[in-house]
Amino acid sequence: MDIIFIDNLKVYGILGIHEREQRNPQLIQISLRAEVDIQNAAVNDDIRQTVNYSTLAKKVMRFISENHFLTIEALIETLAMTILENQRITSLWLRVEKPHAVPDAQSVGVEITRSNSN
Fold first, then answer.
1. Number of helices and strands in the chain (H, E)
2. Could you say which DSSP state residue 84 is in?
């Protein structure tokens, strides 16, 4: 299989357990690797036969801006399910980070791997 990836997509959203985090959007970074068969798209030079990374990035950004979460765990699991609605994606590695959430750490976050069971 082949991989379509997005690295360190910067999105602002509501995420966190503290009151200030629930009031003010903060920077959230998303990285993902989607396993996709790109052969037909490559042979036919046809974007409709693959996963458009621009469309995928916009979907992630819209999801983050429209949903509020207390935990990264809830956000990442729900986002993974949303991304895997695209049947062209057979598996997904997803990383959600909160830069500067912990003093002296550049970033903290969660990584998961999920498969499209259909």
1. 4, 5
2. T
Name every residue whose Cβ is closer than 8 Å to that of residue 71 and which is 6 or more positions away in sequence.
17
pTM score, whole prediction: 0.93
pLDDT digits (tens, 9 = 90+) for 21-36: 889 999 999 999 999 9
2-115 architecture in CATH? 2-Layer Sandwich (3.30)
* Neighbouring residues of 106: CB distance < 8 A, sequence distance ≥ 6: 99, 100
Quote the DSSP letter at residue 51.
Answer: -
Domain ranges of the chain: 2-115
Contact 83/74 with Cβ under 8 angstroms? Answer: no
Contact, 110 vs 73, CB < 8 A? Answer: yes
d(CA 33, CA 116): 13
Do 59 and 13 touch, CB atoms closer than 8 A? no
Rg (CA), the chain: 15
Looking at this protein, which amino acid is placed at residue 72? I
